[in-house]
Hints:
By secondary structure, this protein is of the alpha+beta class. It is about 40% helix and about 10% strand.
Amino acid sequence: MERPASRRFRDSRPTSLRYAGCGSISHEVALARLPRYALPGMAQHVIQRGNNRSVVFRSNADYRFFRNCLREACAQHECVVHVYVLMPNHVHMLMTPATGSAIGKVMQSVGRRYVRRFNDAHGRTGTLWEGRYKATPVGTERHLWACQRYIELNPVRAGLVDAPAAYRWSSHRANAFGTPNALVTPHESYQALGSEPRARQAAYRTFFDEDLSDSTLAAIRDSTNGGWALGSQEFHDEIGALLTRRSRPATRGRRPQRNDEIGV
């Protein structure tokens, strides 16, 4: 059986990045802002919001077209999506790129195609997205599962549905019930949940029996919005050393909450 994409993309990597899969590393030149994380084979939580939090999906056709654009761009630029949710005014994805520039190329391609079609369909002009997308690498398996739950529970927290399976525009039905979805490629941690699909789906559903803690929600939001890595102390240290950039905010007086303290 073919190995999951997140494993195929890897080559040599540090042992402590077992679930990150760090291959050859590069990074952009920092100008007035922190550079992107260019980490081949490492899962990243990606979020893109509508400008001024405005609606970016007005019809089912919009959702379908965005999803198709994302699938085609990922195939072209060697990137896979493990988990996603398309909310009315923003999108969340857990993606693994094969190259350091893959996520950027995917988001550029999707943004260009989708905005052109959205503006034509709804008689509008101008920008749709709120600046550039945000992304953060996700470290250990514990943080990876927390991030996946965070993404697929978005519609529940927003009060759109009572359960994640009731929301049509996410990966939850594929991951939890095996509903076919051409966009979703299981992460290797998902594949390790069981020896056959039904066992993996049943195990995955158990992660959603409890809500995420407030500390978990805060850690994920702070990391993604601030452009920091989400993981253990060791993960932060290794990312910082590999990319010669800060992977967490500077300490100012008191010790900040560490991402490895979140309760999953």
